[in-house]
Amino acid sequence: VSLKPDGSRRNDASNPDAELFARVVGTVIHHKYGKLVHLRWFILQEEFSESVTVDDATKALVPTIGDNELIQLAHETYQFADQINRKVPVVAFSPSRLCLPVIDEMTLYTRITLSVKWALEPYTFNIASTHNDNICSRHCNLGNLLDINQEPIMRFCELCQCWFHKQCLVVSPATVSTLEELKATRPPQPEDESEANYLFNSGQVEFSGHDFSIWMSLLHRPIQRGHSDYPWLLSFERLLYAVRNHDRAWGCPSDVQDFVTQHLSMAPSLVHLTDKYRAIVQAPYPDVYYYCPDCDSNI
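That's the BAH domain-containing protein sequence above. Prediction below.
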């Protein structure tokens, strides 16, 4: 939710025109003050500069924060319910897991693994908790951090269940990604689009050659967070992981377009743009694969 500053965050009353954000933890009825909301505040990127950090670890975090990123404040407080302006959609994700929905350049987002707290010095912060241990390899060139502002493209290894910075990877000559083993009960699949059309026309499969071609393109598209054509964390990670899981068990679905729509995982503010982002993920994309530094699979 958004609220207007009133001094309850120590120094926020100095900017009465600002809009502050908080997550509602719960509500309570107070015998004297009426309805109160239990809040966990967020810190805006513009508030979180090196001048308000007190240790090297927190200073190192500052350049990695995105313009639309909200940093969770560890402290909780209560506020009058009538001071809430509006509900605000905020996407929460973990840097180390497959969980980021499709967002755009206007979407507000927060890392669930990161929070800061007020330090003893007035109006300063330090890190309260961060759990980014599973990002990249032990030879990471970027301090095992997700840096939103420095070409934030990462690749996911399905076998290792780990994200790696593109800058920390070595290019592979592979033309397809390494997939997990198929289930023994998976139905046989066509070799190519023409065979799929033949089987479809003879009633042996429920998908056309065109559907099968799109499906195979999605199946071997690398799971990537970030996109070279868009300057924000555009990712289709949840969709592509769903494609791999479905193919492993069942192969190509009868309606690929419907499958993509159902699993695209749009941010709440972008649902009306589903067709636009479905076209982006299905457009031809020159895939370059890399070796996973932990298991040597192609990612």
